[in-house]
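Supplementary notes (optional reading)

For those who missed the lab, this is the record we used. Protein: ATP-binding protein. Length: 469 residues.
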Amino acid sequence: MRDPLSVLTEAFTSFLFGKVETTRPPVRTSTGQAQAVYLPTAAPGLGDSGVIIGREVYSGKGYIYDPFQLYGQQLPAPHWLVLGESGNGKSALEKTYVLRQLRFKDRQVVVLDAQGEDGVGEWNLIAEELGITPIRLDPTAALNHGIRLNPLDPAITTTGQLALLRTIIEVAMGHGLDERAGFALKVAHSYVNETITDRQPVLSDIVDQLRHPEPESAESMNVAIDDVRAWGLDVALVLDRLVDGDLRGMFDGPTTVGIDLDAPLIVFDLSHIDRNSIAMPILMAIVGVWLEHTWIRPDRKKRIFLVEEAWHIINSPFVAQLFQRLLKFGRRLGLSFVAVVHHLSDVVDGAAAKEAAAILKMASTRTIYAQKADEARATGRVLGLPRWAVEIIPTLTPGIAVWDVNGNVQVVKHLVTETERPLVFTDRAMTESASDLADDALRAAELEAEQRAAAFVEQHLGDSESTVA
């Protein structure tokens, strides 16, 4: 029974103020908002083993990444795609990543350096710091006994040599070989390998045999010798470009002795080759296959193969097919392939869309720097990014990127140490003359950009999450 005094007090209060009931609506929030408020419940990181990339923008946690540590349970493949407009920090990320990986004694890195300044590749400073001489592929220097890589190197299997020769010809011609041309090439290659035993066969041997086929080749197919010669004429003309044309000197002789394939860092300097010419995908095909057969071995080392301007690979169906095999074998042999591309639209809408999709599918890690809004939407559709990540990509400032590691999506600020800074930034002419005041202003602007990005993420993370009571 209620206390009479309480009943009297309640009646008196109701008489003075009226009967008022205070109702409290249920608290509703999204998991994304909860993660932003309660950091211990935020999305898990990638572990604490590997190299430090920087910090997560919205949580402030350190961001550590290593494809070899994550492979298996968290990563189905160790390959990595880096996307973004120029000037947003891709080069700095690549270089610090390699430098930090090389601190592990079981790591080895090959870089195809397709960009350069001051007459040398972008990786020249890092190579000098590590006491390494880049392998500079330059037609002019090659004529004066420069570096040569032989597509017919005995270290490459006979099958690999023939596949590489077909790729070189198909890339240069822009279409696949027909059966007759393919037969002429196969016969010439077989004859050269069988008859030349006292030295390395070279491309000029193939060209000579195509121009002057043996009668036995025609007899085996019951055709006239002139027919075999006609079938191989276009093939000979294409290969002649590597022997006596604008690409002569780099691939028309025995492989240069003394190339150190055991060095921790191997840099192929392609900066003297026109990036927009047909020569670039040909070079990448030859270097890729040569490395596959001479560098990758079933030992305990973990290898990283980093390719700048990688759209030359992904956008060519013939070169992409060679690299698909390399990537598949790489998982078994401890190889992580890193492809650096400016625009995904350069490759997914081209003639090699099928091959490009296959290579992109193998890249379980994707890092996307700032892009224009329409490009970001196209990238998001191809890579299957969440809506909030697509919306934030156009707002990213240099050094900040969206990382998608097999579905674990974070916004990460890449951090560069003072020791690394002079080695990794390519705009040295600008930074060397900057005053301390300008540096302070830049750091303040970067901090403000980080805060804006963090606020944006906290506001929009919940958009793609389901709400809970």
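If you only remember one thing from this example: The mean pLDDT is 80.
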